[in-house]
Amino acid sequence: MKVRNLIAGGLLLCAGSALAEEAPIEGTVEAKCVITTETTGVYGNPVPYKLSTAAADGGVLPIIRYDVISADYYKASISHPEEFTSSPDLDDSVTWTGETEVHEVSDVAMASYETDKVEYNNVTDFDLTVAGSTWFKVSSVAEYGYQKSFPAGSYNAVVNAECIAL
Amino acid sequence: MAHQFTPAYPKLVPSYVREVWKADMNLLNMRQDVEYFEFGVFDKDWEGIPFALSGNRIVRIKYLERKDINVFIKREDVDRVKYICSKSKIVAGQTKQITSISSRICSKVQ
Fold it and tell me: Is it the case that residue A66 has pLDDT exceeding 90?
């Protein structure tokens, strides 16, 4: 009987010590930039000679989210398309226009991003001076020749979203 | 649908090969639409600098995979290195969407 009690006590002790075991979870937060594709864009074709991502033209604006952990570490540089990456054969010129704008912000201090942005060629730069998330929307319009109909087929273009450490 | 490349400010340190230095980078692919990433090393004027990786310059990193990337640079070029970049590669015909997004993240060497 004594032996049985001792074994039972020993088992209880073992169980007790097992319950006290710790399973550590480690993690570090470091300065980083994460680029997330929230919405891939789609060209609408409101008139035969025009492809546009504007909602009014039946398109969908691409939306890109930038998450930065620390303020003043990165700048966002976004380029709207200036050529198709794939399309049917085109024998006339295509005129490209586009714009990148702040769509949403996670912090009111980011309100100045839109006014402080720098535009050159097809590129728009934003200094990410506040930690948090910023959503950018990119509009893109392609017009073919002088109101010439785009040939039927599939058209692909690429928006380049860059995050560069300062 | 995200792309993460760290650290933001890597340091170049001597590697196990004489006269070759290296930077230890890490890429996390959370983009379902991308499986390949290209790496580049640049000076302050964005001129390319020769470098080597443990494998190819275009690396396959599957969705939700995290990969350590060792970037090797010749000792003579170390002082010129300013940026180490990773860029998502969109495979032709891989996607049916008609505007794709290419992401590129550049870390600045200290």
Answer: yes
Each residue of B50-104: pLDDT tens digit? 999 987 889 999 999 999 999 999 999 999 999 999 999 987 665 554 678 899 9
CA of residue A76 relative to chain centroid, distance:
11
Q: How many CA atoms lie within 13 A of A4 on its CB side?
A: 1
Q: Could you say which of A32, A41, A158 has the minimum Cβ distance to residue B8?
A: A32
Options 3.30.300.180, 2.60.40.1500, 2.60.40.10, 3.40.50.920; which CATH number does B2-108 get?
Answer: 2.60.40.10
Please list every residue in chain A whose beta carbon sits closer than 8 Å to the beta carbon of residue B24. none
Query: Are A34 and B106 within 8 A, CB to CB?
Result: no
Give the list of residues 6+ apart from residue A156 with CB closer than 8 angstroms, or none.
A84, A85, A86, A87, B95, B97, B98, B99, B100
- Per DSSP (E only), the strands in chain A are 33-39, 50-52, 63-68, 74-79, 94-105, 118-120, 123-128, 132-144, 157-165
Which among B1, B6, B95 has the least Cβ separation from residue A32? B6
Six-digit token pair at A144? 């073919």
Residue A14 clears pLDDT 70, i.e. is over it: no
- pLDDT at residue A27, rounded to an integer: 81
Q: Which two tokens stand for residue A166?
A: 């300062």
Long-range interactions of A26-30: CB distance < 8 A, separation 24+: A29/A69, A30/A69, A30/B6, A30/B7, A30/B8
What ipTM describes this predicted complex? 0.86
Contact status, residue A54 vs residue A44, Cβ threshold 8 Å: yes
Per CATH, which fold does A25-165 belong to?
Immunoglobulin-like (2.60.40)
pTM given for the model: 0.85
